[in-house]
TrEMBL record:
It comes from Methanobrevibacter gottschalkii. Residues 385-510 form the Putative peptidyl-prolyl cis-trans isomerase domain. This is UPF0288 protein SAMN05216439_1401. HAMAP family: UPF0288 (MF_01089). It comes from the Archaea. Belongs to the UPF0288 family. InterPro entries: DUF8179, Methan_mark_3.
Amino acid sequence: MLIKINGEEMDVAEASTIQDVIEETNAPYTPGSIVCLIKGKKELEKNISKYKIRTNKGSIVIQLDESDETKPLVDIWKNQYDEFVDLNIRWSTTTEVAIGPIVTDLEPTSEEYKYYEGDVVLSLSSFSNESTHLILLKDNTTNVYSVPPFNKGIFARVIGGKKTLDNLTDDDSVSSIEPIIERSTTKDIVSVSDLTTVLEEGNELYTYMSFDIDEESPVCVEHLFALIKDGKMKVSYESESFLGFYELASLEKPKEHVTKRNRGTITVRSDGVGVGKLFIYRENRVLSPNHTTVGNVVKGMELIDAAKENEFITVKAEQGRLMLLNKTQAEATEMLSAAGVEHMIDGLVDDNAIIVEQTPQHTIDILKEGKVITKAINKDDLCTIKFTDNAPRSVRYFKLLSGLLENPVGQIKIHFAVPGMHIVIFEGDKKAAKGLVPENNPVDKVIRGQIGITNMASKSAGLIGIRFEDNSDFGPTAETFDATNIIGDITSDYDYLENLKEGVVVYVAESNNES
């Protein structure tokens, strides 16, 4: 049976499931994400009212008249519009452009009617249904177009591309006709998470959304990349006009390239309430100086229409992120070579060393410069942390302060270290620490290697600490238990940290150790 997957038609076995088709085609898909299922082209197009007629001179947009009187004409159009593709402009006058002919089952009339600029008419030239033409009116006129006995043959209006229409001659042709999918036309698009769903003839399946990036917004584009975890993004909010992705909300970003927010535009809010939130638009919205454009959906807009709050979408960037942190020097060299970028190493040259800094930081800047400088450390010197699920505010604070919210390697600086005290304390941020309510306080004792943060119960809120021995009285920042929030455990060798001095930067990463 014939189906479509990500826009490509293919023949699959009867009773194939979504999982079968994904595996057979190797379609991009991240487990846990939704897929979009459309029953078929006609099922989708029954709600569509706008069409784009592409020519070698440009495009013309028409909007259907959905009144009862025009229904027979609209039905003919929806069933046969693709027959006008690849046809020449049959004639062009000062009042009209004609495209055709095609064969229909319409019957002609001989009445003369008044027509107005922008009318779109089905005409049966020479009173023959074998010579059905599409007439687009450039000016008001009175004529006998041998139209069917429905609404003077008028079934649509030209709503865009008047300049193109005026410039068409009989040397031009139609290259394609495309239904324009808007949010209001997607009633029969559904999101599916059950991959055992059996597909039927004519079904359309979409497994991923791809996007291109706006090269004039290097900082905010990196913010978009940071929201993609394991090849997917989680929907935080759904409305008729957009999807919201709020995982990195409150992270301040500079104002960069501002454009119109059209359907498929991706923006980051850079000013006002909700800074750091990312939006993908289902409908056109007015231009806003508070939104930086970071990209546009290239494929898979159907998934954006179908997705609901808390669902995951598989995403794929046309230009991938050049994030080198937490990779070995050898891995980075291979990645950069594939992108045509020169890899320059500052300091430790070992192929197995772990990269902790890169300059430039942003993908777009790296591509523009054609080179990147990396700094690496020995793998044993990277401090890895297994974060707890019981202190979400405190964990977010730590990731914000260290940079782990957006990058795979972060940095924290030693604030206080005294040999023999078996404790090291790192700098905090008093402003960011204002929301650190008590959570996940120690009960009987603090275990060696636990990492904690001082909460709002103390004037020193925001300080971060590690203890190198168990303690039944004080937490990792030397505060009482009620002023201490435990955020996790160090999973790497950390004894060397006790011997470091104030002002030294320690590189941190989230542990992959599930134990």
